[in-house]
Amino acid sequence: MPHLFLNLGSELGAPERRQPVVISTMLTWVYLAAAICTASAFLRYQGAIPNGDIVPDPCRIGDWPGVGHFSSNGAGPRNEFGLDFAAAGHVWTQSLCQKDSDRDGRTNGQELGDPTCRWTPTSTISLAAPTTHPGICEPIGSSACAWQAFLC
Q1: Taking the mean position of all CA atoms in its chain, how far away is CA 95?
Q2: To bridge 134 with a disulfide, which of 25, 30, 81, 83 should be the other Cys (CB 3.0-4.6 Å)?
Q3: Residues in domain Temptin Cys/Cys disulfide (predicted)?
Q4: What is the CA radius of gyration of the chain?
Q5: What pTM, to 2 d.p., does this model score?
């Protein structure tokens, strides 16, 4: 019968205990599988919106990979664009494109470089560069964006 337990702690003078290595290993695999699934969903969502992989970070120079969340890494609560994107079935639609999720006066399409709302994940049309973040009202801290209470 294969050994499923390790003798841990006896080298340190602690009482002999048998700790199940199998449980620890299984938990590690479950955690890794969950992380991989989360990362693949995250990349799929980036590919489901125009310029999804280069959405500008409203707080500093660079990109905001977690476009649907208040956290740039895609964790935690969703911003208004993330809620609207989920309500649209995680699909870039004409309605989602024309909506101003963050209420900053620019449509989601304008902010993401698809002002005519013609982009699809399989299209070859040229996109403009994304100008601002569709889920975070900008300029941050302005009276027009006070409703969002977002801070960098």
Answers
A1: 21
A2: 81
A3: 40-136
A4: 22
A5: 0.73
